[in-house]
Amino acid sequence: MKYRRMGHTGIKVSEISLGAWLTYGGTVEQQSAEKCLTKAVELGINFIDIADVYARGKAEEVVGKVIANYDRKDLVISSKVFWPMSDGINDRGLSRKHIMESIDRSLERIGTDYLDIYFAHRFDYYTDLEETIRAMSDLVDQGVVHYWGSSVWPAVQLERAVWLAKDLGLHPPRVEQPRYNMLDRFIELDIMETCNRNGIGIVCWSPLAQGVLTGKYNDGIPEGSRATTSDFIKHDLTEENFARVRRLQEIAASKDIAVSQLALAWILRREEMTSTITGATSESHVISNVAASDIPLDNETLEEIETILKNKPETHPVYRPPW
Q1: How far apart are CA 33 and CA 24, in angstroms?
Q2: Which CATH architecture has domain 12-309?
C-alpha cells in the first residue's frame, strides 16, 4: 500500500481507503462487514470513511466494533454531519447546534475520543458559513476533531470557506470529498484546481460509479441489484457507458488486471488525489481494490483511455475564449 499526504497537512492516508456507504450496518451483514474491515487494515488501509447517516448510525457502530481491536493512532477515521438523523427540525444541516450534538453521538457510536476528519456532508445554504466554520474550528481546538473537511461542496464555497477562516483566524477546511470517476469528471473543471491551490486534499467517493466500472452491468441489470434502487447510479446506466466499459476491459485484460483496478489506478494518476474511497462487500473486493495502489499507467495507456472516454469536462462556452 502506498500513502499520500492530505493536502498541505502532515497526515498521510492510504491511496485506497474503505467506505461504509450503503453497506456496513445496512445491506452487508455484520460478520462480512467485520471481515472486510479487518482485511483492509491487514493490507495497509489506514483510512476508514463513515457518516452518521449511513444506516442511521449503524455503520459507525460496525466500524467502531472492529477498530476497537487496533491501536487507534494507527488509523484515520472520518465521519460526517449534515443529513437528517431524525424528524427533529434541528437534527439536520450545519448549524452549530447540530454539529455539536452530532459529533457527540458519532463519537459514542464509534467508541472513540476523537475523529481524524469530520466532514460537512454537503454545503448548507440555510446556515451562515461563518457559523459552520466557527463550530468546526472549535471542535479542532477542543481536540475531538483533528481536521475538518467538506463533501460535495462547490468550488466557490470552498474558496469562501478558506478565506473566511483565514480572515477570522479559524481552522480552514483541509480536505474535500467529491464524487469522481471515469464517468463523472466534473471536479476536473475547477474543484481540483481550487483544492490544489489552497492545500486541500481530495478523497473521492464512487470511484467505480456504483459498480458500473466493474463491468457487472454490461450484460443487463440483475433483479434486486443496487442499480435498481440507487438514484446515484441511474444516469450512468447507458449503452454509451457500457460500450466504454467493454473497451476499457480490453485495456485491463492486456495488462492482466481487472477493469475496476484500471479505474482506480486512473483516479490515482492525478497528484491532486489523496485517496479513493472504495466499497467492499467481501474480502476479495478489498484485496482487488488494494492491488490498484501498485498499478502504474503510462502515457500511452492514459491516452488510449482518453480516446475511449471522450468526456473530459469543458467550461461553458460563454466563459471559454474563442481561441
Answers
A1: 6
A2: Alpha-Beta Barrel (3.20)
Lowest mean pLDDT among 14-28, 131-145, 180-194, 216-230: 216-230
The two beta strands, 76-81 and 115-120, are parallel
How many Cα atoms occupy the beta-carbon half-sphere of 297 within 13 Å?
A: 22
Residue given cell 481552522 in the structure block: 171
State how far the Cα of 197 lies from the Cα of 310, in Å rounded to an integer: 27
Tell me: the pLDDT tens digits for 251-293? 999 999 999 999 999 999 999 999 999 999 999 999 999 999 9
Of the candidates 54, 118, 180, 217, the residue annotated as catalytic is: 54
CB 245 within 8 A of CB 212: yes
Question: Among this protein's residues, is 3 annotated catalytic?
Answer: no
**Lookup: cell for 191:** 474543484
Look at residues 102, 169, 91, 177 and name the one whose alpha carbon lies nearest to residue 130: 169
Domain spans, the chain = 12-309
* Packed helices 239-254 and 259-267: angle between N→C axes, nearest 10 degrees: 90
Report long-range pairs for 126-130 (Cβ below 8 Å, ≥24 apart). Answer: 126/93, 127/93, 127/94, 127/95, 129/157, 129/160, 129/161, 129/164, 130/164, 130/168
Cβ count near 271 (within 10 Å): 9
Q: Which of 29, 22, 64, 18 is nearest to 287 (CA)?
A: 18
Pairing of strands 175-177, 145-151: parallel
- Listed residue (85, 94, 162) closest to 124, CA to CA: 94
